[in-house]
Amino acid sequence: MQLRIPPGDNRPRAICNACGAIHYHNPRIVVGCIPERQGRILLCQRGIDPRRGYWTFPAGFYEIGETLAQAAARESLEEALARVQVGSLLAITHLLHAAQVHMTFRATLLDDNFGVGAESLQAGLCGEGEIPWDHLAFPSIDFALRCYFADRSAGREQLHFSTAERALGGGAAAGSPRAL
Amino acid sequence: MQLRIPPGDNRPRAICNACGAIHYHNPRIVVGCIPERQGRILLCQRGIDPRRGYWTFPAGFYEIGETLAQAAARESLEEALARVQVGSLLAITHLLHAAQVHMTFRATLLDDNFGVGAESLQAGLCGEGEIPWDHLAFPSIDFALRCYFADRSAGREQLHFSTAERALGGGAAAGSPRAL
């Protein structure tokens, strides 16, 4: 493999010296949702790196063959054994250095029978005054939650954009993640 | 390379038999915009496959290191030498079999000095009654344009979702693409 600019292109790409195949690398989508039930929202404590021990709503890499809403529902099921109905798109955060776009939807948690998924340490419902702001996993989680509560207070549903220049998390474990 | 399900995962991934590296494949984002000036919108006739000869607004693969709006502006410059101001998000189309998500923004064309980019055959401004509906390049282009004009008529700016099950285009050249 060698980094070269293919003919007609304007960016270096990974090109196989043997067969000439061009391997494009493009940003990946991380999709999630904020499931609400009776005014409280569902958060999970991450059980895997990066940012093990920190808190997030259900979110993960968007996979081939599903819609964004289906992906958000799948992540809720995987991370918190939660059944959700996905609503409107709330926030898009560009993580430039991580080559990721985080897309977060509003959602409704359909019943109280959630649990702790294989990649989580805990899961629980959390009122607006109980959000562990200092122990959120990623800047995009913080941004989406702030937009969520601001819109909810104002009785509106808007789409919000943000950009984070630095890479996500550090892979370090949480110092003292606050329990829900 | 071998397709296997890694430990803790639930999908087959391409895994290198020599070093164990997992090569994830995720959907790619195609980002574009509909630049409007004095009531007309900017369309380009594609000069490359797939769908050479068919019409589209400026759009292309989202690259690392840019925001979605910056990508939409870059594509306008590359495909139609056009300077645009990107506005609100108009449409998201899931292309399930192509493993793509097409995201289209509203935009304003800032001046009349556009032209024909290296990957285009023609570019031109087009009123709502002049859209070459039968010669659009992709279902996502058709969907976004219909949403655009419906919202414009209604004086609103909403975000619209659609899903296309079949793969994009066929790579075949256009039979008789209509000139603008």
Brief descriptors of the model:
homodimer; 180 residues; alpha+beta; eight-stranded mixed β-sheet; 2 helices; 16% helix; elongated; disordered C terminus
Describe this structure in words.
2 copies of one chain form a homodimer. In chain A, 16% of the residues lie in helices and 36% in strands. The first copy, chain A, has helices spanning 68-80, 139-154, and strands at residues 2-4, 13-15, 22-23, 28-37, 40-46, 55-56, 59-61, 84-95, 100-109, 120-126, 160-164. In chain A, a hairpin with a 6-residue loop joins strand 2 and strand 3 (22-23). Chain A is an alpha+beta fold. The A-B interface holds A 8, 11, 24-29, 61-69, 88-89, 92, 94, 96, 99, 101, 118-119, 159, 161, 163 and B 8, 11, 24-29, 61-69, 88-89, 92, 94, 96, 99, 101, 118-119, 159, 161, 163.
Radius of gyration of chain A (CA) equals 18 Å
Mean pLDDT of chain A comes to 91
* Biggest β-sheet strands, sense, barrel of chain A: 8 strands, mixed
Q: State the low-pLDDT regions of chain A, or none.
A: 168-180
Shape of chain A: elongated
Number of E strands of chain A:
11
Query: Order of SSEs of chain A, N→C?
Result: EEEEEEEHEEEHE
Strand content of chain A: 35-45%
In terms of quaternary structure, what is this?
Answer: homodimer
